[in-house]
Amino acid sequence: MKQVAWVLLLAIAAGVGYWLWYGQRRWSERQRAEEERFADFMAQVVSTPKPRNAAAASAVSDPGEPGALETQKLLFEAAHKAGEAGEPALAIQLYGRLLARYPGTAFAEQARASVEVQKRKLSKA
Questions:
Q1: Residues 76, 79, 82, 83: what is their CA dihedral angle, to the nearest 10 degrees?
Q2: Of 100, 21, 4, whose CA–CA distance to 61 is shortest?
Q3: pLDDT in tens, 25-54
Q4: pLDDT at 8 over 80
Q5: CB neighbours (10 Å) of residue 111?
Q6: Fewer CB atoms < 10 Å away: N or C end of the chain?
Q7: Is the separation of the CB atoms in 76 and 111 below 8 Å?
Q8: Which tens digits make up the pLDDT trace of 91-115?
Q9: What is the rounded distance in angstroms from the CA atom of residue 46 to the CA atom of residue 19?
Q10: What are phi and psi of 65, to 5 degrees?
Q11: pLDDT-derived band at 67, boundaries 50, 70, 90
Q12: Using alpha carbons only, how large is the chain's radius of gyration in Å?
């Protein structure tokens, strides 16, 4: 009878160990996928070339250009997520990039307010 109890206890311990190992493996896969998605997003945002003169700057910041609103939204969301993730310096940089490229964006007031909040977070740390 003792042997059956020990075998049962060993089987339960093995099951719990396997469950923990499997959960940790899935969690690390999700983290890796999340980091890859963020890296791809940042590569898309950064790959947009900066203009060298004022005429090119006005062409890039033209809100009527196709995809400009989507780019503005992506930059704003990336900055917001960086701020939520505890990266105030990155959030300030992304908000700054948004305001530099699109000074007349609909997100300008929110971005400026968020920059002030992130600056306060940065000064506290």
A1: -100
A2: 100
A3: 999 999 998 888 887 777 776 665 555 554
A4: yes
A5: 24
A6: N
A7: yes
A8: 899 998 998 888 888 888 999 999 9
A9: 40
A10: -70, 145
A11: confident
A12: 24
User: Cβ(72)–Cβ(107) under 8 Å?
Assistant: yes
94 HSE (CA, 13 A, CB side): 27
Report the distance separating Cα 37 and Cα 1, nearest Å.
Answer: 54
d(CA 5, CA 2): 5
pTM listed for this prediction: 0.49
Q: Is pLDDT of 55 > 50?
A: no
Are the C-beta atoms of residues 75 and 45 closer than 8 Å to each other?
yes
Mean pLDDT taken over the chain: 83
Are residues 76 and 110 in contact, defined by beta-carbon separation less than 8 angstroms? Answer: yes
Contact 74, 31 (CB under 8 A): no
Start-to-end CA span in the chain (Å): 61
The token duo for 64 is 């009527």
